[in-house]
Amino acid sequence: MIRAILFDLDDTLILDEAVCEHAFREAGFVAAQRYSLDLERLAYTAKASARRLWTEGPYYSYALRIGHSALEGLWAGYSQTQPEIRGLREWTPGYRLALWREALADQNISDENLLFELADAWRTARALYPRFSEVDALLAALTPKYKLGIVTNGVPDLQRAKIRGSNLVQHFQVVVISGELNIGKPDPGIFEWICERLEVAPAECVMVGDNPERDVAGAIQAGMRSVWVDRGFKPRDKRYPADLEVKNLLEMLPWLEELG
Predict the structure, then answer these.
(1) How far from 159 is each of 17, 18, 23, 71, 204, CA to CA, in Å?
(2) Does the structure show a pLDDT above 90 at 260?
(3) Average pLDDT estimate for 30-48
(4) Nearest Cα to 185, choosing from 231, 147, 216, 160?
(5) In this structure, what is the dihedral angle of CA atoms 125, 159, 152, 100, given to the nearest 10 degrees?
(6) CA atoms within 13 Å, Cβ hemisphere of 118
(7) Are 208 and 227 in contact (CB under 8 A)?
(8) Beta bridge partners of 5
(9) What value does the mean pLDDT take over residues 157-183?
(10) pTM metric for this prediction
């Protein structure tokens, strides 16, 4: 019998990739007020530079462990006191300028003052937390029947801000963030932690997420059923077959009814 449904956050309940694309467009418009440039090329180069600089940075192994991404590093506040988070707070201001320096240089532009404007424009534009269109109907259907939890990777202040900003917090009994435990999906420990708080066994849970390597793999290792929601950003991974694949979260409701 299924007693609890656990959800990933980014690109499962709320839009992530689409809002990042919006932020790159907004920052590009700021640059285009100063210079004639190729906006698509600017965004592409900025993203590529961000990901390369992130992997070359001193905190990449920590970020990989807790599932904190290069683009999240562009707007996280890093208010916690853990040594790695304090280090990221000191390192990321330079990182946020460097990616724009490289993106502008790719179009033969050098303007140090503009770097600060682009970093600020991106961060401001990214601070949106839209839900996917089916989420309200889904939660209305699930709340009377199941315990609900969120299992999300990332640094605490940023993930908490997303949950507050999307007005989701009141729907979930327990929220766990990898940066609070210092372990992230797919480590079974984070799933075990939330099961204990919800007072359910892993076999009584379904994990729902968009990332096969994090969400589905973690659920399998923890002994849970899994639902992979295909948002079009992460491909199916044959190593980690989900119990159910959907494109819209409402598609899981008949399957849950069959499970009882």
Answers:
(1) 15, 17, 18, 13, 26
(2) no
(3) 98
(4) 216
(5) 40
(6) 30
(7) yes
(8) 148, 206
(9) 97
(10) 0.95
